[in-house]
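Incident log, support desk, overnight shift.

02:14 A customer reports that sequence design results differ from what the structure should imply. Their input is reproduced verbatim below. On-call engineer (initials T.W.) acknowledged and began investigating.
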């Protein structure tokens, strides 16, 4: 990802299309900065008092649950930097540099696996970056062998083993090799097919590269294909992005991620190569967003939430219909109730009641592992209030609705009393038509779905203390 779906009830399938009220003034009023809630608490609440020992204790506690595992592997290397990028990456063309990194990854696997119950299945695997296909075919095979030796990978048909691919440096042989390694889902970075936009972001990628890979992936029978797009890039207009969408829809991916570009050049050095004067204005961005939703909805995609769209039979849409959709550091996931093991520089784990984060710089990551300890630099153990709020925010972000009676039953609290201040904060959003309350049920309206991050912020107990931090804008 940059930066980094059975029939669904009518309440879930609603989208902010041309058939519903589109209130640009309302969107602008609520378009503030806020967390994406890939975790709660967010990473801003992680602290250095949380140590590698705390992480291993969390792993050992989690074994009693026998929850399945989701493993994320971060490959930080890229041959060429895209100017929009906000990912943790290392620019190099020397694939030999990956050898020492793979060795450290194996050390991390060994140190992690010794605390895990070997019977816990690995239902989900995701390689992200950087550019995972920076690795040679031999290196990719070696990494899979190491993962299998340490954790025991699955061959179950319902496993979700995904990898992010740069179409500029992968070919049909790459796809055949990935299939032989057990991957069954692909995510291809596209961003935009307009040559002028591609030049401005330093990513020359003719459509034929993506089309060739997708044709081969369909032929090979990969279960799900995702394409990543970004709106808000330099020189984009509603008309130009509509042309990209027409071409993308013709490629027929099962899923689409359409991210809002967050221009934060003070935090991400490559973005300093993008002139703010070349970026579309606020009105143009809203037009692009509306056109995106209209075109994808007309093409049969369901708006899962935020920046994700999926065909009705894709596992994301199925999970949302079943109420089992999950949100983690890779976005939306169809495998609920997994413990997430993050491997590699900058990776974050969610194990039971704890989050643990690795260093964001390669030298610190390597130094810790060379000294025989997990490279944990910070994290947090959740208390009961954190766990309750994490559950509420996740359900709102995934289901676009919240059942307060169910919250009361699950957590043995009176949810209406417990969240009295949060519900009061949502009163204005309710008056503005972003959310509807019927008894103990809160449900986001089509416009509210676009601002679901804003609605979730009402339940965030940490947000007042983080008000000085800069998050990306919501729309």
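02:41 Re-run completed on a clean worker. Output:
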């Amino acid at each position: 990802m940059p930066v980094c779906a059975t029939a669904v009830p009518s309440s879930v399938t609603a989208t902010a299309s041309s058939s519903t009220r589109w209130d640009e003034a309302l969107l602008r009023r609520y378009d503030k900065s806020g967390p994406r809630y890939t975790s709660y608490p967010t990473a801003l609440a992680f602290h250095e008092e949380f140590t590698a020992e705390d992480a291993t204790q969390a792993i050992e506690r989690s074994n009693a649950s026998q929850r399945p595992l989701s493993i994320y592997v971060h490959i930080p290397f890229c041959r060429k930097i895209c100017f929009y990028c906000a990912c943790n990456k290392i620019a190099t063309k020397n694939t030999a540099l990956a050898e020492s990194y793979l060795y450290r990854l194996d050390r991390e696997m060994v140190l992690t696996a010794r605390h895990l119950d070997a019977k816990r299945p690995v239902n989900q695997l995701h390689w992200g970056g950087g550019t995972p296909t920076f690795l040679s075919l031999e290196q990719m095979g070696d990494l899979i062998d190491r993962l299998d030796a340490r954790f025991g990978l699955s061959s179950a048909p319902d496993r979700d083993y995904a990898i992010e691919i740069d179409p500029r440096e992968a070919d049909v042989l790459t796809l055949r090799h990935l299939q032989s390694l057990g991957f069954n889902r692909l995510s291809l970075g596209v961003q935009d097919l307009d040559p002028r936009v591609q030049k401005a972001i330093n990513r020359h990628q003719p459509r034929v590269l993506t089309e060739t890979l997708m044709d081969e992936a369909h032929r090979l029978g990969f279960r799900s294909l995702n394409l990543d797009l970004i709106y808000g890039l330099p020189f984009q207009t509603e008309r130009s992005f509509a042309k990209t969408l027409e071409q993308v829809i013709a490629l027929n991916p099962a899923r689409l991620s359409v991210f809002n570009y967050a221009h934060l050049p003070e935090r991400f050095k490559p973005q300093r190569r993008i002139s703010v004067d070349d970026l579309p204005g606020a009105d143009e961005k809203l037009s692009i967003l509306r056109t995106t939703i209209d075109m994808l909805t007309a093409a049969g995609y369901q708006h899962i939430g935020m920046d994700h769209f999926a065909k009705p039979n894709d596992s994301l849409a199925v999970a949302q219909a079943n109420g089992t959709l999950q949100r983690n550091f890779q976005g939306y996931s169809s495998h609920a109730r997994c413990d997430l093991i993050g491997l590699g520089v900058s990776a974050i784990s969610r194990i039971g009641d704890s989050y643990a984060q690795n260093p964001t710089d390669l030298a610190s990551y390597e130094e810790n592992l060379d000294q025989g300890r997990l490279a944990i630099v910070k994290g947090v153990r959740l208390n009961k209030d954190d766990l309750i709020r994490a559950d509420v925010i996740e359900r709102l972000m995934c289901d676009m609705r919240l059942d307060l009676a169910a919250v009361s039953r699950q957590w043995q609290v009176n949810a209406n009393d417990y969240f009295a201040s949060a519900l009061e904060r949502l009163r204005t959003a309710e008056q503005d038509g972003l959310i509807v309350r019927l008894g103990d049920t809160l449900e986001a309206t089509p416009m509210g779905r676009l601002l679901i991050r804003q609605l979730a912020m009402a339940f965030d107990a940490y947000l007042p203390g983080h008000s000085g931090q800069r998050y990306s804008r919501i729309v």
